[in-house]
Specification:
heterodimer, A: mainly beta, four-stranded antiparallel β-sheet, about 60% strand, globular, B: five-stranded antiparallel β-sheet, about 0% helix
């Protein structure tokens, strides 16, 4: 498994505050992804990166931004958190094959 | 529109019997299919995959079948064990070289002793 860590693992924040989630990998994988998991929806792609400073939107990108300044780090920012962004967020990486490898997740609660 | 669908939210199987999880997709351009397993409070872990040039791939107790004409894939687990109790996601990708996967909603499998 790719060495993937996510921080923080749990966060409670108030509506309207900015939040940044961090994903760190040690496998030098080119591709990195942010997903959210919600009941009945499975895993939905928020944003992904195909290289340093190269990112693109997924299917549920509204309200989120990302940055990748180094191969190993991929940041997800909620500029102004809303209750609808309460979810579990997973980071994933991918090397040369199609398989993606997931981090342990961040549980975010927006009150 | 949901390109990948798992129509059974849950499945209950007796230990030692076969578990069959199903997945349907709509995009005929998908050329790679994967299954992931997820335990509570953990990230999904890759289980098994199959490319569109095959119709079966086997790895120990796990076998994935692909029916391209029906746009359907299934995961067979035999014999089922208590540790197999988890949520299973199917995923599809490879459309024109795209780097993204599309996931189904997941099926919660419970193995009863």
């Amino acid at each position: 498994d790719a060495g993937i860590t996510q921080s923080p693992r749990h966060k409670v924040t108030e509506t309207g505050t900015p939040v940044t989630l961090r994903c760190h990998q040690t496998e030098n994988h080119r591709y990195m992804y942010w997903y959210r998991q919600d009941p009945g929806h499975g895993l939905r792609l928020i944003h992904y990166s195909y290289g340093v400073k190269d990112t693109d939107k997924g299917e549920v990108s509204d309200g989120y931004s990302v940055s990748r300044s180094k191969t190993e780090d991929f940041l997800l920012t909620l500029e102004s958190a809303t209750s609808s962004q309460t979810s579990v967020y997973f980071c994933a990486t991918r090397g040369t094959s199609y398989e993606q490898y997931f981090g342990p997740g961040t549980r975010l609660t927006v009150t | 529109d949901q390109q990948v669908k798992q129509n059974s939210p849950s499945l209950s199987v007796q230990e030692g019997r076969i578990s069959i999880l199903n997945c349907d997709y709509t995009n005929s351009m998908f050329d790679y299919f994967l299954w992931y397993k997820k335990y509570p409070a953990e990230g999904p872990t890759f289980l098994i995959s199959i490319s569109s040039i095959k119709d079966k791939n086997e790895d120990g107790r796990f076998t994935v079948f692909l029916n391209k004409s029906a746009k359907h894939l299934s995961l067979h687990i035999v014999p089922s064990q208590p540790g197999d109790s988890a949520v299973y996601f199917c995923a599809s990708g490879g459309e024109q070289g795209a780097q993204k996967l599309v996931f189904g909603q997941g099926t919660r499998l419970t193995i009863n002793p």
